[in-house]
């Protein structure tokens, strides 16, 4: 029987039901909202002038497409990337950019606040070629540093886990195309990161002169413009929907998806505390917290939440809230966001993820929103004789 104090509503952290019939009123499940002061925060985008705002390159399936520029003058040529084979392990993706590469403030902000695993990328080589020379796929958010394959903080580094060279499509060629002439890169040539709309992405693929093998790779790795063949579990794929603020905390319906996200988030958090010299004990099945970490006589209890989204809102049970408010121990909230799912032998497996730790965490009452109640239906009164 499920321990009622340890029911999980968040992505990947157990069943989304109570586990038994309650015969009395019970406290609600809460949605905890991340406070701006506790997080790097997505924030509102500082938009470039004109029409190229946040909705410009948002696809119907939640993904985005970008044009990523490199130049010999800045010390990078995509030929270096194409010389390396694509990694079959998404955790070992190729790290790109950083503040030394990305100079413009709008490009930095787009990487930090909008990049998500599964986004599509056109590779544009500036001087001397001035041409689109390849395709790639994002494998991470924009992050500040990476430790043990885990992206941490918000910054201008990002990873690619798939790339492919193409025949060059010159700047003049797409600037003269009736569809591509309105593209941000055609109108605003400067900047490392430019937006590409869904219609522009389809047109670029049409005019890139891809051969049959390249088309097959695009359909397989991008799932665009056609869906990948074969049945996938619900919610599994390269696209990673953004977790909307004020929503349901990213609940996943498919149990295999939940298990994959739970396993990945637990692994990431355990490895983090082990690198700090902790002895880590898994307590998820017996206590209202997931990990007990010890440094000698010191104890830290860790609540783990995993999601494919941003992790701006997580679901908490009353047991988790009460444990976090305990004065005799420290509680940390560990959120692993942006987890990428891949299907291996028919089963979804989690990779990647960005770790954020809220140390000495105690949720404030005004950050908790009741989202569910149990109601005891009054018994029918027997009619009097």
Summarize the structure.
With 385 residues, the chain is of the alpha+beta class. It contains eight helices and 17 strands.
| Model regions low in confidence, pLDDT < 50 over at least 5 residues | 1-30, 33-49, 226-249
Tally of strands: 17
Structural category is: alpha+beta
**Largest sheet data:** 12 strands, mixed
Helix share bin:
10-25%
Structural account:
The protein is an alpha+beta fold. It is 18% helix and 28% strand. The protein has 8 helices and 17 strands. The protein folds into 2 domains: 160 residues, no CATH class; 157 residues, ph1033 like fold, CATH 3.10.590. Strands 2, 3, 4, 5, 6, 7, 8, 9, 10, 11, 13 and 16 form a 12-stranded mixed β-sheet that branches. A 3-stranded antiparallel β-sheet has the order 12-1-17. A hairpin with a 2-residue loop joins strand 14 and strand 15.
Descriptive tags:
8 helices, three-stranded antiparallel beta sheet, 385 residues, elongated, alpha+beta, twelve-stranded mixed beta sheet
Secondary-structure blueprint:
Blueprint: E1 29-33, E2 65-70, H1 79-82, E3 94-97, H2 105-114, E4 120-125, E5 131-138, E6 143-147, E7 150-170, H3 171-175, H4 184-187, E8 193-196, H5 198-207, H6 212-221, H7 255-275, E9 279-282, E10 291-295, E11 298-306, E12 313-316, H8 318-324, E13 330-337, E14 340-344, E15 347-351, E16 354-358, E17 368-372
Parallel strand pairs: 2-4, 7-16, 11-13
Antiparallel strand pairs: 1-12, 1-17, 2-8, 3-7, 4-5, 5-7, 6-7, 9-10, 10-11, 13-16, 14-15
């Amino acid at each position: 029987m499920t321990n009622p104090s340890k029911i999980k509503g968040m992505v990947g952290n157990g069943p989304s039901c109570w586990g038994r019939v309650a015969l009395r009123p019970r406290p609600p499940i809460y949605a905890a909202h991340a406070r701006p002061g506790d997080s790097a925060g997505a924030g509102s985008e500082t938009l470039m002038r004109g029409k190229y705002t946040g909705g410009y390159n948002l696809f119907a399936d939640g993904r985005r497409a970008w044009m990523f520029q490199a130049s010999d003058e800045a010390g990078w040529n995509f030929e270096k990337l194409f010389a390396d084979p694509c990694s079959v392990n998404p955790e070992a993706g190729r790290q790109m950019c950083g503040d030394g590469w990305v100079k413009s403030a709008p490009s930095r902000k787009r990487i930090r606040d909008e990049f998500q695993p599964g986004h599509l990328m056109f590779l544009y080589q500036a001087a001397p070629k001035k041409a689109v020379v390849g395709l790639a796929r994002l494998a991470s958010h924009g992050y500040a540093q990476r430790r043990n394959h885990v992206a941490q903080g918000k910054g201008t580094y990002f990873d690619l886990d798939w790339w492919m060279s193409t025949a060059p499509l010159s700047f003049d060629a797409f600037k003269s195309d009736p569809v591509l002439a309105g593209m941000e890169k055609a109108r605003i040539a400067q900047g490392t990161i430019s937006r590409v709309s869904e219609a522009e992405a389809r047109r670029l693929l049409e005019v890139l002169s891809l051969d049959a093998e390249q088309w097959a790779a695009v359909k397989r790795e991008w799932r665009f413009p056609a869906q990948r063949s074969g049945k996938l579990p619900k919610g599994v794929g390269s696209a990673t929907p953004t977790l909307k603020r004020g929503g349901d905390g990213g609940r996943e319906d498919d149990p295999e998806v939940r298990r994959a996200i739970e396993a990945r988030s637990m692994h990431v958090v355990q490895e983090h505390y082990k690198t700090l010299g902790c002895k880590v004990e898994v307590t998820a099945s017996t206590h209202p917290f997931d990990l007990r970490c010890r440094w000698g006589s010191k104890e830290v209890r860790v609540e783990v939440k995993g999601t494919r989204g941003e992790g701006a809102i997580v679901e908490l049970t009353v047991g988790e809230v009460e444990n976090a408010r305990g004065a005799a121990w420290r509680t940390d909230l560990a959120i692993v966001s942006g987890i990428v799912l891949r299907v291996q032998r028919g089963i979804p497996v989690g990779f990647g993820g960005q770790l954020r730790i809220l140390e000495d965490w105690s949720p404030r009452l005004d950050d908790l929103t009741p989202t569910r109640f149990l109601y005891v239906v009054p018994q029918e009164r027997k009619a009097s004789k």
